Amino acid sequence: EARVSVGQIQVGSALSHIDMSGSGRPRTSSFAEPPGAPGAVSAAAGSSVTGGISAGKSGASQATGSSSTGFGNLKLARDSGKVTTVVATPGQGPDRPQEVSYTDIKVIGNGSFGVVYQARLIDSQEMVAIKKVLQDKRFKNRELQIMRKLDHCNIVRLRYFFYSSGEKKDEVYLNLVLDFVPETVYRVARHFNKAKTTIPIIYVKVYMYQLFRSLAYIHSQGVCHRDIKPQNLLVDPETAILKLCDFGSAKQLVRGEPNVSYICSRYYRAPELIFGATDYTSNIDIWSAGCVLAELLLGQPIFPGDSGVDQLVEIIKVLGTPTREQIREMNPNYTEFKFPQIKAHPWTKVFKPRTPPEAISLCSRLLEYTPVTRLSPLEACAHAFFEELRQPTARLPSGRELPLLFNFSPVELSIQPQLNSTLIPPHARAQTSPASHGMYNTSYPTNAYYMFRSCLLDDYIFTRLG
């Protein structure tokens, strides 16, 4: 409450001294901003890295050395050819510990959360990422608990987890063995930005569609990610498959139970969080996704605030001053309304002239002050902006087929069944095995295909639609 009251004073004074009458784009930072800049943290530092982590001191056979991070990454780099064997528990299914061996270990990122490594599994020769974090013995690790219950093709898979001892007495580290995915949306977009060109709109559609699918799934499980940003969206540049990663800030939201409002990376932070709301919903993820979409279209963040308060200023420059009712919807406990009245900037003037109208329309439905009026993830998937993806002739710029986008599970089809006939185009209802597309990742459970086939039968769909 103290933070909120302070914020009210700061917000009021900040807005009263800032000229928001200009019709041009607010000053922003580009995708090419330095890794230390707010909202542009490198993928590695966000633990999203290129996918995974490997343990620094994973068992007695793993040598570690001293380093500034305390994870022994300098020694690890020298021992990258060493084979490490640990006893690990599968990420999904029964707790049946088994020996897992990996090699070719190298550090690919570190930050306040810990260290991320890349490694190769000996048995399958597959690359994995290993995220190593200090474990507080007093509490269960929330990220581990959440990842163990998630199973979706657009969410990075937890393959195994194991614990390792640290250099200090009683120091224990949790190691999450994850899918390795080579790139992030942040770095892909930065590549195009450096080339002074815009990312092809088909990529924007394919990436955002898969992000919304992942959000629909986790929200149906009661999980809010709370840190959606380009750095946490892993992508395979060849197949365009996207996987949501880094559930370090995620939480199972329970109505009536308070949550911290100081969450989510600043550029992507929903306005209700800035207003200090503690009873927010998963709609904060929708706002963040809208910010990601706008950033891909603009080539730069849409709301590049220098501070928490300045973040609200940037939002008001585009959306205008929120009404009293909108503020109440964001945080009923916020009672001061000392805001200059700023008119909303037309969405068509926010984006470049050739931006598809459907893209602008979708952005406007995601970036709304009132949380409950934002589109749901599946409503976003059904939006006209993604209509091209539902055409049987749609292809990536390379000529390659799109990744599987319509292999909805029964869980997904039960979320908003009235949308199913829109979400699954006629040609996709007869799709064959994912393997026949030659580009679907093996992390999807094999029995999911049989679920997939049954749930795509016309009779099933139309029965569900009633």
Q: What does this 3D model show about the protein?
A:
Helices cover 30% and strands 14% of the residues. The protein is an alpha+beta fold. The chain has three domains: 2-35 and 183-389, Transferase(Phosphotransferase), domain 1 (Orthogonal Bundle); 73-179, Phosphorylase Kinase, domain 1, CATH 3.30.200; 407-465, no CATH class. A six-stranded antiparallel beta barrel has the order 1-2-3-4-6-5. Strands 7-9-10 form a three-stranded antiparallel beta sheet. Strands 8-11 form a two-stranded antiparallel sheet. α1 crosses α8, α5 (201-220) packs antiparallel against α7 (283-298) and α7 (283-298) runs antiparallel to α11. The chain starts with a helix and ends with a helix. Mean pLDDT is 81; it is low at 1-78 and 432-466.
